[in-house]
């Protein structure tokens, strides 16, 4: 038996645009899959004490999938820093660790807005130089800053363990005020953050970046805090295409493939596989719905059509499409048997309603 979960961040169109976007979609394979599926689970945006979620629905789904349903609930970013450290070759032996990302924050009319981290385009040489400026400043506050890669660093901060933090994608494009770390030691974080900002301001690296038409690196984003002994679990035998920080979840799967086509996934015949297709994230976060449509049509050609054929032929037994937007999640379960419902016409209505 072969089962695939396909996680599709932002494959659900926003409610206010759903009708128009779905009219523009030309995705017959996807229409066949969702029309003949069973909606297993719908995750609305549950209420929190703060009135908003500090992680996006697909991020919360991943956390639940790899930490289990019994993991303690709190409105914070997924606690993935130790696992992400291990995936980048750093072993956290003790303490409480956070992810720290160099970012660009721009000034709107009356507030500050976090820019999508994918747009930063920070090369290794510049990242190393900025890290070398920041690390001694963290040392001054008794905190250890470690380098992971150009876009992901780590800080040990045992006394910050009660902070509630937000993922960069959840905060992207928004007024950062409510998304900033909250908790007893939030001022301690802001002090070191401000120190770094002052040292980076008008630095030669940023002046050169701006001269090349790039955004300056002017702040840091803190999130993903967890104890060094925090462990992930997995019921997946294979993971495919887990990139960026999400790759940390794949470290506990027996078999991992970082870049695979639909044909390669199907040929692998995973007993229980997870595929993450996140190409819609950037256009959705940027509200570029023309590019979003292009992305959906590319997924239709390269993924939905081959997966539909694999189900029909028996190469795959079961398939679940987990589609999200910024405030909800729907899961569509389809099997070879359910595809035999010839009386059910292909339709995107389940996806767009």
UniProtKB/TrEMBL annotation:
InterPro entries: Regulatory_RpfE
Superkingdom as given in the UniProt entry: Bacteria
The name this protein goes by in its record: Signal peptide protein
Record organism: Noviherbaspirillum autotrophicum
């Amino acid at each position: 038996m072969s089962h695939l979960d396909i996680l599709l961040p932002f494959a659900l169109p926003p409610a206010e645009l759903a009708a128009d976007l779905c009219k523009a979609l030309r995705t017959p394979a996807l229409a066949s899959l969702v029309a003949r599926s069973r909606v297993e689970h719908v995750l609305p945006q549950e209420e929190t004490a703060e009135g908003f979620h500090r992680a996006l629905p697909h991020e919360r789904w991943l956390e639940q999938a790899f930490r289990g349903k019994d993991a303690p609930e709190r409105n914070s970013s997924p606690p993935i820093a130790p696992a992400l450290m291990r995936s980048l070759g750093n072993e956290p032996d003790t303490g409480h660790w956070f992810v720290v990302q160099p970012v660009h924050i721009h000034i709107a009319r009356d507030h500050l807005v976090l820019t999508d981290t994918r747009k930063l385009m920070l090369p290794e040489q510049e990242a190393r130089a900025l890290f070398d400026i920041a690390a001694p400043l963290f040392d001054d506050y008794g905190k250890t800053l470690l380098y992971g890669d150009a876009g992901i660093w780590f800080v040990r901060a045992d006394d910050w363990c009660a902070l509630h933090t937000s993922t960069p994608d959840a905060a992207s494009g928004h007024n950062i005020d409510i998304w900033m770390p909250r908790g007893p030691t939030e001022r301690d974080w802001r002090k070191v953050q401000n120190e770094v900002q002052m040292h980076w301001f008008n630095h030669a690296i940023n002046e050169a970046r701006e001269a090349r038409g790039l955004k300056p690196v002017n702040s840091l984003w803190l999130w993903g805090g967890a104890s060094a002994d925090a462990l992930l679990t997995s019921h997946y035998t294979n993971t495919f295409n887990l990139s960026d920080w999400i790759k940390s979840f794949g470290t506990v799967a027996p078999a991992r493939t970082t870049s695979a086509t639909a044909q390669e996934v199907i040929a692998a015949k995973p007993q229980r596989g997870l595929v993450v297709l996140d190409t819609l994230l950037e256009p959705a976060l940027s509200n570029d719905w023309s590019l979003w449509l292009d992305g959906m049509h590319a997924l239709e050609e390269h993924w939905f059509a081959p997966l539909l054929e694999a189900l029909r032929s028996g190469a795959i037994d079961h398939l679940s499409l987990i589609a999200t937007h910024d405030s909800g999640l729907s899961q569509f379960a389809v099997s070879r048997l359910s595809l035999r419902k010839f009386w059910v016409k292909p339709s995107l209505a389940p996806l767009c309603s």
